[in-house]
Design brief:
It is found in: Cytoplasm. The chain is mainly α. The chain is built from 20 helices and twelve strands. The strands form five sheets. A three-stranded parallel sheet has the order 1-2-3. Strands 4-5-8 form a three-stranded antiparallel sheet. Helix 2 crosses helix 10, helix 18 packs across helix 20 and helix 19 packs across helix 20. The termini are far apart.
Length: 470
């Protein structure tokens, strides 16, 4: 139903975070679904910062949201909209609703509302506040709130593109506040006005907003506006089935970037949290855009799994172009305060990348594997490498270095032939030579093939590093 409707006109989706903290993983997934749906239909994806909560909204949080979106590669159309800048417009709509009789002024105090609810509970009735000012003929005194005149009878139905048709009895819904007594609009009002004015056709968000859709649809109808297509997607849970929390991985997007994940892998993984395309697990962003539809979004909560994310990230690294990974690693290092790669390091890294990316699942692992290409001499061996470089090993490497000085072909094939001949002459298995050689050249016990390492470093650098160890 929702995708059919999308075909009939221009699709407009939006992501509307509150700038009260980082862009968490659930928000990122919501943004991604809206972005994919808009891009699939050739529509527009908008960004609105819902900053009307002045006490909790901060410029730093807004900047973090922008940075998270940019790292994920979720570009938005036009300028980001500040909800706070539209307060006058929200007030205009409230005045229009008062004039039309679809809203009313309420002078009830907090104490009166609390007392009403307590009495309702004591009498076994629903604690929904029923304002005595709804049909009052005379105005009260002092500050007042403005409430929606919601229906008291019948049903309110939302045709949700994911959850199906959902119905509430009107008596379960209260006369929600549209404007507080201090003159500020509520979230319920502001989001409806902004979505209408921005031309939003599809509201895709977490299913914790499902009840809000019933109440917000009443505001649309009160203003005579078209109700957008609602699509409430399942929340993300931890591996244990409990609501996602920091202990599960409910971190800010920037923390996933700092852990060395690629943006394209995060997009792939987040897309699979609640949406599927057959049995496909690994796919490109272009494929996700081509395939995405609300009809394939499930209703059950998705489960976050770090092991699956890491595995998927490794697949994306192996599939990535070598120069793409060099650039990604360079940005990753610079973000952590390391100087940009120089041309020589970049060239060595590019040459070694085919072997490096086969062994790494994150950029952190890739950087560690590439230590031998990026570190200044003399290299500092790690614990395992140091154990391989005892006195006997150093003496062996000294004899090998003497032979390497005269090697004619300093390439993988020529070096392998030379070192195999050397090992045979020393009456050793190849590994007994390759292991200390690897430790000397890379300062690690694990690396790409040692012959590839030597070719990448070149004769001069290889001999210099052996000399450092000897």
């Amino acid at each position: 139903m929702s995708d059919d409707k999308a075909e009939s006109g221009g699709v407009v989706t939006r992501f509307a975070p509150s700038p009260t903290g980082y862009l968490h993983i659930g928000g990122a997934r919501t943004a991604l679904f809206n972005w994919l749906f808009a891009r699939h239909h050739g529509g527009r994806f908008l960004l609105r910062i819902e900053d009307t909560d002045r006490a909790r909204s901060t410029p730093e949080a807004t900047a973090a949201i922008f940075a998270g979106m940019e790292w994920l590669g979720l570009d938005w159309d036009g300028e980001a909209v500040s909800q706070l800048s539209r307060i006058e417009r929200h007030g205009e709509v409230v005045e229009a609703m008062l004039a039309a009789g679809t809203a009313y002024r309420c002078w009830a105090s907090k104490e009166e509302i609390d007392a009403f609810r307590e009495q309702a509970k004591a009498e076994g009735r629903p604690p929904l506040f029923r304002s005595p000012w709804r049909d009052a003929s005379e105005p009260g005194e002092g500050p007042y709130a403005v409430r929606l005149k919601a229906p008291r009878e019948g049903q309110v139905t939302v045709a949700d593109a994911v959850q199906g048709e959902v119905t509430w009895a009107a008596e379960q819904l209260d006369d929600l506040i549209l404007m507080r007594s201090d003159g500020t609009p509520t979230y319920m009002l502001a989001v409806v006005v902004d979505d209408h004015d921005m031309g939003v056709t599809h509201v895709i968000r977490g299913d914790d907003h499902l009840t809000n859709a019933a109440r917000q649809s009443l505001i649309y109808r009160a203003m005579g506006w078209d109700v957008p297509v609602f699509a409430h997607i399942p929340l993300i849970h931890g591996p244990d089935g409990a609501k996602l929390s920091k202990r599960h991985g409910a971190l800010g997007v920037e923390e996933y970037a700092a852990m060395g994940y690629l943006p394209e892998a995060m997009r792939n993984y987040l897309a699979r949290l609640g949406w599927s395309h057959g049995d496909d697990e690994f796919f490109t962003t272009e494929q996700a855009i081509a395939w995405f539809g609300l009809g394939s979004v499930g209703r059950s909560p998705a489960r976050f799994d770090f092991a699956k994310l890491e595995n998927l990230n490794g697949q994306h690294m192996r599939a990535a172009a070598d120069d793409h990974l060099v650039n990604a690693l360079d940005r990753f290092r610079v973000h952590r305060g390391t100087a940009p790669l120089d041309e020589a390091s970049r060239a060595r890294l590019l040459a070694a990348m085919p072997g490096l990316k086969e062994r790494a699942k994150t950029l952190i692992e890739l950087e560690d594997l590439a230590y031998y290409l990026l570190a200044a001499r003399p290299l500092e061996p790690d614990v395992k490498a140091a154990k391989l470089l005892d006195g006997n090993a150093r003496a062996l490497l000294a004899r090998l270095a003497a032979r390497l000085k005269d090697v004619q072909r300093f390439d993988t094939a020529g070096l392998e032939e030379t070192i195999r001949d050397f090992a045979e002459a020393e009456q050793l298995k190849l590994g007994k030579v390759a292991q200390p050689l690897r430790a000397a050249l890379t300062a690690r016990a694990v690396s790409p093939g040692v012959f590839d390492v030597m070719e990448t470093l070149g004769r001069e650098e290889t001999l210099a590093r052996l000399e450092d160890v000897i």
